[in-house]
Amino acid sequence: MMHFLQKIIENPILKDPAVEHTDVHRHFYRYSKGEFIGPALKISKSKARITLKGSHEYEDLILEVVADTISQDEVEIKGTLISGGDVGDLIEDLGFDWALKKSTGKTKNFKANFVSLTNRDTLFERI
Asked: Based on the domain organization, do 77 and 63 belong to the same domain?
């Protein structure tokens, strides 16, 4: 997956970015009319773990910090992915087998609870 700034540099005119290029669009919608909170980053520490939660503006930073601290050959990643669109194909392309389910409520989204094994090199390839 290409970083959103690299995508803009290589192709400065994107046709229908809200639909065809949501990965770029989401970084700029906050500059439209209205009030938008964020970006947000929360770091909490307990005896057993450090938890990083952040808005999409920090996704690359969080992945880089986490991947840089891994010393084992394999590491377990687990969490919940919530997306406004169907990203099932992208998840498969990244080599993960996560069961993405479409919501049935008023707010249409896709959600996957996942547990996977991966390694440091694979995570750095994703940055």
From this structure: no
Domain count, the chain: 3
Q: Identify whether the C-beta of residue 81 lies closer than 8 Å to the C-beta of residue 37.
A: no
C-alpha angle 72/83/8, rounded to 5°?
85
Torsion (CA) 29, 20, 89, 32 in degrees, nearest 10:
10
- pTM attached to this predicted model: 0.49
Tokens of 44: 């909490």
Together in a domain, 46 and 81: no
Taking the C-alpha atoms of residue 79 and residue 86, their distance in angstroms, rounded to an integer, is: 17
Kind of pairing between the strands at 110-118 and 101-102:
antiparallel
DSSP code at position 78? E
What digits encode the pLDDT tens for the residues 52-75?
A: 777 767 777 777 777 777 777 888
Domain extent for 29: 1-36
Distance CA 99, CA 4 (A): 26
